[in-house]
Amino acid sequence: xxxxxxxxxxxxxxxxxxxxxxxxxxxxxxxxxxxxxxxxxxxxxxxxxxxxxxxxxxxxxxxxxxxxxxxxxxxxxxxxxxxxxxxxxxxxxxxxxxxxxxxxxxxxxxxxxxxxxxxxxxxxxxxxxxxxxxxxxxxxxxxxxxxxxxxxxxxxxxxxxxxxxxxxxxxxxxxxxxxxxxxxxxxxxxxxxxxxxxxxxxxxxxxxxxxxxxxxxxxxxxxxxxxxxxxxxxxxxxxxxxxxxxxxxxxxxxxxxxxxxxxxxxxxxxxxxxxxxxxxxxxxxxxxxxxxxxxxxxxxxxxxxxxxxxxxxxxxxxxxxxxxxxxxxxxxxxxxxxxxxxxxxxxxxxxxxxxxxxxxxxxxxxxxxxxxxxxxxxxxxxxxxxxxxxxxxxxxxxxxxxxxxxxxxxxxxxxxxxxxxxxxxxxxxxxxxxxxxxxxxxxxxxxxxxxxxxxxxxxxxxxxxxxxxxxxxxxxxxxxxxxxxxxxxxxxxxxxxxxxxxxxxxxxxxxxxxxxxxxxxxxxxxxxxxxxxxxxxxxxxxx
Length: 543
Fold this sequence. Notes:
By secondary structure, the chain is mainly beta. It has helices at 14-18, 23-29, 38-42, 56-59, 147-158, 176-179, 184-191, 411-420, 454-457; strands at 71-87, 90-111, 119-131, 134-140, 196-198, 201-203, 211-235, 239-272, 279-314, 317-324, 328-345, 348-355, 362-369, 373-382, 386-395, 401-404, 424-434, 439-448, 472-489, 492-508, 513-514, 520-521, 525-542.
């Protein structure tokens, strides 16, 4: 016996049918990590009211006005990461080691013979804004439903038929991926026998008496690089101002795998009646083993503009304010998916594979607008040797928007953004103490609230994704604990930082499944623990 899945209007619009991106993807492309110089990172990035740093001027462009001399420097980052997937007492860990150039830049200072405008400064910086390098895998035991039933529900709700999902290469040359309106997820699953049509109804492999487990794995690589042109100065050594024009380059590659091994699965078998010679197809309970692989690559460039000021009403106090416009990206997405499957029931066994659009890589161009950001900061100079700094950053994740390359709004996708995301709040505190004229010690802490809404985190809403598999991640809070040392001698300076980042996400294999009888099954899920330890080294000279 199989329950009837509540019909949802899925994947009906052409954009939704062919687009390889979802609200979860564009959220990831809109995030920024705490990366920069070793001094900046050792104080947890709480630099909005301090300035005078090659990465801090990206946080608050007004920080370029602090400079009284020119500066050139480079920062290297050795990242030791560990990702653990936990589900129902099962834990699988993977490690990674990466080496980055976090930051490099130059600031030029021009002194003016003026008390009102003592100096004008300009600069160029490179900053690694985010790294996507990650690998995790896990096992989800004791399933209560199957991804195949989820896909059967989307097929039923779309109003499509088996003919809409079937190639007809002999008579008409019909290709369901190019010529029809069905979603790619529905087509691939049907051609992999993960879904079948029985008495005119789509059904998956799960029913009464079915049990099984799932495995999943994700490989990610790439990152976001910012190239920023900065300009600013100060007014009477009280008001420091700045502006920046940024160009961002993005590359994101992801390979995802999801598979199920099902016992008592409702498998479609074909056989021939030897008496009358007729062929028959029946659904019988047996064993099903399948795996879905999805590949996606997104590349593109964007532009943004930032403004900032730092106010020094007295020598012991500084206040900072910065406003970041969205980054306006022009992106290109390439994607495909394939399956491997093996079924057995009552002595019938068959296996094979299937590919979206015969294995051709599909492409899609679109535009993305990332969130608005606002930064407010305060810093105190204590006794001439100490600094205590606080930052607050508001990130309006719900303001993200996507459109096609003709400027037409993706209404459904942008509605998903409103439903799945909310504003994030980032709190930072950093401290520095100069032990001698040459040596300094530093420490910091930052805390970022989740950008995912409670309803999507807790499986209280149907979730729309694209392609296969339909997995997605929801964010939990992120925190950093940082320490560092600094040394300067005449014009030369070098800084060292240790940064620990704790980030947790929840992996959902697919959307919660709702039934017409009022029942529902939560999505199979796992907790993904991402731990990063970074050793950051900056070398620079001021002249």
